[in-house]
Amino acid sequence: MSNPVLVCVFQGINAYDTLAAVLEGFTQGREKFTTSGSLPQAVMALPPEVTFRRAILFFTEADFVTGKTCCHYLIITFLLLFSLLWEEWRDLCAREQLFNIFVTGARVLCTVLLIKPGVWSQNLARILRNLDLEKFTLVGMKHVDLEPALALGLLPSQVKQDPAALEAHCTCLTSGTALVLCLQRPNAVKKLVDLLGPEDAKLAQALDPCLWRAQYGTSTVHNGFYGSKSYQMAVQDMKLFFPEGLCCAKCQTLEEEEV
């Protein structure tokens, strides 16, 4: 009762395996973090049901959920760092709602893929086949001749701070007609980001030749694709490129975002 405890709830892709690996590395490298030879004990819940039972000891739904969910497919795990367990049971009135968060599968989301000029015209059939193999559903497609202002909005802040890089990226994006696809599937945003790989095509080639930017790109500028990097950006991109709507059934996520 004399020492406080730290209770954390984590969410992430493959959260159980990832957290287990982190904890294993943490204990193996204990000499790097302390000179006393002692570390806090760590208890990790494994299945969602156990995670739920432990989480409701400390958190209500209001504590756990803040605003609209914008996650990809999240597997949620629970980590308790403690010396002595001193906390009594918390408010349990939101058990059913909180439990649903732990056991609900992946939500169907949409994301945006822009195939840069000069890439889609020669490789569209192969790209569409790969999208189908990855279980993406095509719910929107259009040709776009990007104006400089629109191209600028697709670039990350670090590029905008470098005049030379900014000019190179804008020149590439506005050099011809781009093809914009809106794609739907569970965990769509994260899945597409993983398929594309790093912005730098050469780095992508070094990491994995199967990454799409490794296959279709040659540099950071001419890397073949723009993809929404987060769910928030995906929503903005959908509203930007497909204001007329999408050819898919309205799912809960799209209704919540008024897409």
From TrEMBL:
Transmembrane segments: 70-86, 98-119
Keyword Transmembrane annotated: yes
Gene3D superfamilies membership: Nucleoside diphosphate kinase-like domain (3.30.70.141)
Keywords for this protein: Kinase, Membrane, Transferase, Transmembrane, Transmembrane helix
Record-level Gene Ontology MF annotations: kinase activity
Domain Nucleoside diphosphate kinase-like, residue spans: 108-248
PROSITE patterns: NDPK_LIKE
Alphabetical list of InterPro entries matching this protein: NDK-like_dom (IPR034907), NDK-like_dom_sf (IPR036850), TXND_domain-containing (IPR051766)
Superkingdom per UniProt: Eukaryota
Family matches, as PANTHER family: NME/NM23 FAMILY MEMBER 8, NME_NM23 FAMILY MEMBER 8
Family, as annotated: Belongs to the NDK family.
Protein name: NDK7 kinase
Species of provenance: Piprites chloris
